[in-house]
């Protein structure tokens, strides 16, 4: 389960930001997770609660914004939304797609005390 390692990295980011900006508690963490990132939002919620124990982020709520996958069709030159990498272009049926969004996972914002 790579979500555990991802959550450890999220907690490290939160702790670095707490040190840099001098806050003492995190109420919530908002994450952007792309549809093509291979990250399971529910696993992130569970793992974050475990990893955040005894840290500045203990008890923090996790809010997740799911971002759609987007690709550029090299055949018809259109930007399209995709849910999986193996989809074809709904406009022309081509599989020559270049992913342009939806692979990201980032800490978008923190609610702090």
Automatic annotation (TrEMBL):
Zn(2+) binds at residues 73, 76, 89, 92. Involved in the maturation of [NiFe] hydrogenases. Required for nickel insertion into the metal center of the hydrogenase. HAMAP family: HypA_HybF. GO terms for molecular function: metallochaperone activity; nickel cation binding; zinc ion binding. The keyword Metal-binding applies. Pfam families: HypA. NCBIfam families: hypA (TIGR00100). This is Hydrogenase maturation factor HypA. Belongs to the HypA/HybF family. GO terms for biological process: protein maturation. The gene is hypA. The keyword Metal-binding applies. PROSITE patterns: HYPA. Ni(2+) binds at residue 2.
């Amino acid at each position: 389960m790579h979500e555990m390692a991802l959550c450890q990295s999220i907690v490290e980011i939160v702790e670095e930001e707490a040190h840099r900006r001098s806050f003492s508690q995190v109420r919530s963490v908002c994450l952007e997770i792309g549809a093509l990132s291979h990250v399971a939002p529910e696993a992130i919620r569970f793992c974050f609660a475990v990893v955040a124990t005894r840290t500045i982020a203990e008890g923090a709520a996790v809010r997740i914004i799911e971002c759609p996958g987007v690709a550029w069709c090299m055949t018809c030159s259109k930007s399209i939304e995709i849910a999986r990498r193996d989809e074809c272009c709904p406009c022309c049926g081509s599989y020559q797609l270049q992913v342009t969004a939806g692979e990201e996972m980032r800490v978008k914002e923190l609610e702090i005390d």
